[in-house]
Write a structure and sequence with these properties.
- By secondary structure, this protein is mostly beta strands.
- 7% of the residues lie in helices and 52% in strands.
- The protein has helices spanning 2-15, 194-198, 299-304; strands spanning 27-28, 34-37, 40-41, 46-52, 58-60, 66-71, 74-79, 88-95, 101-108, 113-116, 121-124, 129-137, 142-145, 150-155, 158-163, 172-180, 183-191, 200-207, 219-229, 232-237, 243-250, 255-259, 263-267, 270-277, 283-284, 290-294, 296-297, 308-314, 316-317, 323-329, 339-354.
- The strands form five sheets. Strands 18, 19, 20, 21, 22, 23, 24, 25, 26, 27, 28, 29, 30 and 31 form a 14-stranded antiparallel β-sheet that branches.
- Strand 19 and strand 20 (232-237) form a beta hairpin.
- It is elongated.
- The N and C termini lie far apart (103 Å).
């Protein structure tokens, strides 16, 4: 009895053997033979043919991404575009009668895209440039750019980004997006010259959260300047006899970052230190906390205030609090014995570049 069961299972398994491409093993259920077939599809889909030895009176597939039609002994199989990352598989059933049938397997590859060496962000000098990155894709790529000064294309296995010369007088940026089906990514392209478009005179502005008047917090404004000192960049602020705040500048994705814990100036006989807010809402000099802002350009700033060029950044805090506190100490040492208290607090700070770089007003 066990032997008979095994034989029966063997024949049931044979009924489900399917075929694929030119090398398919088509299994005629009652004698319908496949003469030729091409049923491997690329990701874009298309129509392929299956030829059988008799007139095909009926053909169908259980897959909604396949459509099937018959014409004599020829069966047309049409696959829709496969935007997924993975391949997919199904079958086509062909009948010349209720008794004579065969099953042919069908497969379609998913879309593939890999790009070598492309960063998430790249900076280009004002002279312009052409950027090229090796790309492996099995169908044409879709590329878009949200500016007219950068154009992206794909040919011969490479993504090319042509960046025109920057004569705008200010930093500019855009996103180049590329995709192959569901595989999507982008690169942030920013174009500027550090000395011409980033360094220079600014206005530092924020609100004083300690001194509300009629329920409103006063806005405080300070003349400021971003300067290069050797390999370092500093923010000079015209307050308390002059403050020098060390900053970190990231050129490709141009952030300006201010860490807590710096000694930033001396006012009379006291030393001034920079404190920021931790996640618990307390001021700290720990350099684990920082303020950071992305340098960008918007004409709305110059329209609102004709002194401004349009290059600006808004600071956000690593802890979620955009607060800065300047603390005074008798000695350059963080001890409560020397602590003289806060001399300035600022919240919601912004840095705005001036149109006239010759002097502050």
């Amino acid at each position: 009895m066990k032997k008979l069961i095994n034989i029966a299972l063997f024949f049931m398994g044979c009924l489900f053997v399917t075929s694929c491409g030119e090398d398919n093993t088509e299994v005629p259920l009652h004698g319908l033979n496949v003469l030729s077939s091409k049923t491997n599809f690329g990701p874009l889909g298309g129509t392929n043919k299956i030829a059988v030895a008799d007139q095909a009176v009926k053909a169908y597939s259980p897959a909604d991404w396949l459509s099937v039609s018959t014409a004599g002994s020829e069966v047309s199989v049409t696959a829709s575009e496969n935007n997924a990352l993975t391949s997919r598989h199904s079958t086509v059933v062909i009948k010349s009668s209720e008794l004579d049938s065969t099953i042919v397997s069908v497969s379609q590859t998913g879309k593939v895209l890999s790009v070598t060496g492309m960063p998430k962000a790249v900076n280009v000098e004002n002279a312009g440039a052409t950027l090229e990155y090796e790309a492996n894709a099995n169908s044409p790529l879709q590329l878009t750019c949200d500016s007219s000064w950068a154009q992206a294309s794909y040919a011969k296995g490479k993504i090319s980004i042509d960046v025109a010369e920057n004569n705008s007088g200010h930093l500019r940026s855009c996103y180049v997006k590329y995709s192959n089906g569901l595989v999507k990514d982008s690169v942030y392209v920013v174009q500027y010259n550090l000395e011409e478009n980033i360094l220079g005179k600014y206005i530092l502005q924020g609100i004083d959260p300690t001194n509300p008047t009629n329920g409103k917090y006063p806005t405080l404004t300070f003349n400021s300047e971003l300067v290069k000192n050797g390999s370092k960049i500093e923010l000079k602020v015209d307050a308390f006899g002059g403050l020098t705040i060390p900053v970190t500048f990231e050129p490709s994705y141009p952030y300006i970052k201010i860490d807590a814990g710096s000694w930033i100036g001396k006012y009379y006989d006291s030393y001034l230190a920079l404190f920021l807010v931790n996640e618990n809402g307390y001021f700290t000099h720990s350099n684990s906390y920082y303020l950071e802002g992305l340098v960008g350009y918007s004409a709305k700033y110059s329209k609102k205030d004709d002194r401004l060029e349009g290059t600006a950044l808004m600071f956000v805090g690593s802890s979620g609090y955009s607060y800065l506190n300047i603390e005074s100490y008798m000695e350059q040492e963080y001890t409560s014995d020397y602590d003289e208290g806060s001399v300035l607090q600022l919240a919601n700070m912004g840095l705005y570049r001036l149109k006239d770089q010759t002097t502050h007003e």
